[in-house]
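Is this the right way to post structure tokens for a design question? Let me know if I should format differently. Anyway, here goes:
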């Protein structure tokens, strides 16, 4: 079976020492110690949310300007 490819937006903000990543379309949020970890954790959270290990997740990320 071919893998599905799903695209979702992500927004990453820094809150204190942590980075918080959110997918507005799904309402799924995760966090990490750095930007990359927050996105990795968000991908995993989305996969669990969708309960489909066959899906490939592509996140379009926007970052606020400092």
């Amino acid at each position: 079976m071919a893998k599905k490819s799903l695209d979702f937006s992500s927004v990453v903000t820094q809150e204190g020492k942590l980075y918080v990543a959110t997918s507005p379309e799904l309402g799924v949020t995760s966090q990490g110690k750095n930007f990359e970890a927050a996105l990795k954790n968000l991908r995993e959270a989305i996969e669990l949310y969708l309960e489909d290990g066959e899906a490939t997740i592509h996140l379009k990320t926007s970052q606020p300007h400092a």
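Format looks fine. Someone answered above. Worth noting: The domain at 4-62 is CATH 3.30.160.250 (Double Stranded RNA Binding Domain). The first strand starts at residue 4 and ends at 15.
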